[in-house]
Amino acid sequence: MQAIVESAGGKVHYIELRCADSVMESRLADDSRAAFGKLRDVPLYRSIRAAGGFAFPPLPPPLLVIDTAAVSAEAAAAAIQRAIAGSR
User: Fold this and answer.
1) Beta 15-18 vs 64-67: how paired, if at all?
2) Residue 25 half-sphere exposure toward CB, CA atoms < 13 A
3) DSSP the chain
4) Are 83 and 64 spatial neighbours (Cβ–Cβ below 8 Å)?
5) In the chain, how many domains are there?
6) For residue 1, is it within any domain?
7) Contact indicator for 16, 10 with CB cutoff of 8 Å
8) CB within 8 A of 18, min separation 6: which ones?
9) How far is CA 55 from CA 22, 40, 76, in A?
10) Each residue's pLDDT tens digit in the chain (88 positions)?
11) How far apart are CA 37 and CA 10, in angstroms?
12) What is the pTM of this model?
């Protein structure tokens, strides 16, 4: 996909969002997740994680890494915007 974007004159920016498992588990209980059909079951989350369901192949080095437990969604979005603007 990156090659397709770049062949059309675009640029792909990799941004890594991360947070501790304990934070993720606490977020699973948030009622707002139900509106989007997101996973809300902590034991199921743990089972999927233990089975390697969240293990992904490595991506190219990210332009930016954000710990979403440390910043608000708005602050993360602003940081992403600044990083992308600064890489042009």
Assistant:
1) parallel
2) 11
3) -HHHHHHTT-----EEEE--HHHHHHHHT-GGGGGGT----HHHHHHHHHTTTT--PPPSPPSEEEETTTS-HHHHHHHHHHHHHHT-
4) yes
5) 1
6) no
7) no
8) 65, 66, 67, 68
9) 17, 19, 23
10) 899 999 999 999 999 999 999 999 999 989 999 999 999 999 999 999 999 999 999 989 999 999 999 999 999 999 999 999 998 7
11) 32
12) 0.80
Q: Domain residues for 23?
A: 14-86
- The answer to whether position 29 is within a domain reads yes
85-to-5, 42, 48, 61 alpha-carbon distances in Å? 18, 37, 36, 18
